[in-house]
Structure formats: structure tokens, C-alpha cells
Design goal:
The protein is built from twelve helices and 13 strands. The longest helix is centred in the N-terminal third of the chain and has 18 residues. With 302 residues, the protein is of the alpha/beta class. α11 packs antiparallel against α12. Helix content is 36%, strand content 26%. The protein folds into two domains: 73 residues, no CATH class; 177 residues, Vaccinia Virus protein VP39 (Rossmann fold), CATH 3.40.50.150. Bound molecules: zinc ion (ZN).
């Protein structure tokens, strides 16, 4: 595929400037966008990553045209993602704990980019009135069938949700995938009640781990169009009438086997040996919480 026909240059989403410096050049030239844009897509090195000279936002530029990205997500079928259900369920238990620290009364909650609805299932069991938005038809159907959690297929803007309806909106592993995070946050602000809570997790490009890893940082995946730091995230939230309450570290949970396989992206030898050891000990299903430079932000609608 000729990438020149599918790429477009974009201005900084946060401040509108077109003045940037290149942080990392792409190392791969040819790829199929449909392989890249799925929930568990893990291709690296296809994109040029730049930093806005005006506000410091880190983003992909040029990037695959928005309609191609949206189509790829709509058509995505992701068996791998749902197969990791148990581990993700634990991550989402922790997510709900975080939500209920700020909103203990359990009202209406919307999960944007809810994938197969694992988080919503946890919230529903706890007594929340759940809603989800998910571009993948396959994921939406899977989640509605399995959990009956009210997932609408499509994008947040297309859903045209009611003004000031939600007590809480969550965006787990989502905002860095969207082509227009400013627009998404404006829309979230519109549908939240006054003083409503927004919780976002995001790979923190300003973290120590990210700085040490440099161009090999594991979140420089082709599915990520933006790389936020607490600083750029705060600016973006402020511009959309949110008040930041707190940043915290975000822990995920996956099986030991899956984590060791991920190590294989960096060192095949270490990963192979690790798999042998954990299989020998029959501990491959152990669920391990880990911190991989992701952050949570809790914000309140002004
Ligand atoms: Zn900027």
C-alpha cells in the first residue's frame, strides 16, 4: 500500500500550531492499517512522532487519515482481547474502586470505547446504570450479548447523548487512540452533569520509564495517535472546562504467561526461558498487577 495516499498532516490538537520538532522517525514503511487499529493492536515503528513547539503536546504527524482509522475500528474483530478477560476484569475492579472513591452514590456511568464491556459489567454488578460507546460492531455485539450493559455501536459524537445526563464518564485506554481528543473532551463535558467526574487513563509520556526507554517506549504503538503527559493532559482538560482533581499511577493486571510473552518483544531468549520456568512451576495463570508508566487522571466538570 502506498502510504503517501493514506497519510495526512494535522495541526496540534491542543493549541492549533503547525510548528513542531521531530522526536522519532518511523522505522517501518509499509503496513496494513486494518492490522494496526484494533483494541490489542501492537505494531511499533510505523509513525513519525513530533512535539509541538508551542504547547509541548506529543503526537503522530503525519498520520493515517481519520476515516481509515474509524473504518478499521468499526470492522475490528478482537478474539485476543476478550480471551484476556479474567485479567482485565481485575483491572476494571480496581477502576471501579477508583470511580467510587469520588462518586460513591452509584448513578449513571458511561464508558467511552468500552470494547467488550468488561468494565461496564463490573459497574452493573455494583449497582450502576451502565452505558457504553464502542466503534467495533463485533465488540459491541459481544458485550451486549454477554453482559447486557447497554453498549451503543459507533463514536461518541455520533451517539448524540443527552446533555448533562451522566454522573461519571470513564475512558480506559481510549483518548490516545482518538483523532480529536479536544473534541472528545468537549463532548464529554456536555453530557456530564455539573460536578460530574471524568476518569481517564493514559500512557504517560512524561514518566521516568518513558524517558529512559526513549524511542523504544512500549506505548509508541501505531494505534496511539497522541502521547500525553500530566502537563499536556491538564492543559487539555482545562481548555474543556474540567478541573483536575488528581493524577495517580495506573496499575494493570494480566496473566504471568501474557506478561512473559510481552517481554519477548524485547528479548526472545529471556521470554522463552521465562515461559519454560513458569510452565514448569504451573504458575502461568497467576494474575500479576504491574505498572508500565500509565497514569490516571480524575477531573471534575466545572
Ligand atoms: Zn500545541
Amino acid at each position: 500500500m502506498k502510504n503517501t495516499t493514506i497519510l495526512e498532516y494535522v495541526p496540534c490538537n491542543l493549541c492549533g500550531s503547525t510548528d513542531y520538532k521531530i522526536m522519532y522517525q518511523p522505522t517501518k514503511k509499509d503496513y496494513d492499517p486494518s492490522e494496526i487499529f484494533s483494541a490489542s493492536g501492537g505494531v511499533m515503528g510505523t509513525q513519525q512522532i513530533v512535539k509541538c513547539n508551542h504547547c509541548g503536546l506529543v503526537y503522530v504527524n503525519p498520520r493515517v487519515k481519520n476515516e481509515i482509522v474509524v473504518n478499521a475500528y468499526s470492522d475490528a474483530v478482537d478474539e485476543l482481547y476478550v480471551s484476556q478477560a479474567e485479567g482485565r476484569q481485575k483491572t476494571f475492579n480496581n477502576g471501579l474502586k477508583l470511580v467510587e472513591k469520588y462518586v460513591p452514590q452509584r448513578g449513571t456511568i458511561l464508558d467511552v470505547g468500552c470494547a467488550a464491556g468488561f468494565f461496564l459489567n463490573v459497574a452493573k454488578k455494583a449497582g450502576w446504570q451502565t452505558y457504553g460507546i464502542e466503534p467495533s460492531k463485533w465488540m459491541s455485539d459481544w458485550g451486549n450479548k454477554k453482559f447486557n450493559v447497554n453498549i451503543k455501536n459507533g463514536t461518541l459524537k455520533d451517539a448524540k447523548l443527552q446533555d448533562e445526563f451522566f454522573d461519571v464518564v470513564t475512558m480506559w485506554d481510549v483518548l490516545e487512540h482518538t483523532s480529536d481528543p479536544m473534541g472528545e473532551l468537549a463532548e464529554v463535558n456536555r453530557i456530564l452533569k455539573k460536578d460530574g467526574i471524568l476518569i481517564i487513563n493514559f500512557p504517560n509520556v512524561g514518566s521516568k520509564l518513558a524517558r529512559v526507554a526513549g524511542g523504544k517506549w512500549w506505548f509508541f504503538l501505531s494505534v496511539h495517535l497522541y502521547h500525553f503527559s500530566p502537563r499536556s493532559m491538564s492543559m487539555m482538560l482545562a481548555k474543556n472546562d474540567f478541573e483536575v482533581i488528581k493524577f495517580s499511577r495506573h496499575y494493570q493486571t494480566l496473566s504471568l504467561e501474557h506478561l512473559v510473552k510481552m517481554v519477548g518483544l524485547y528479548s526472545k531468549g529471556v521470554s522463552k526461558l521465562g515461559l519454560k520456568v513458569i510452565n514448569g512451576l504451573s504458575i502461568e495463570d497467576w494474575l500479576i498487577p504491574y505498572y508500565a508508566s500509565q497514569a490516571n487522571v480524575i477531573a471534575k466538570k466545572k
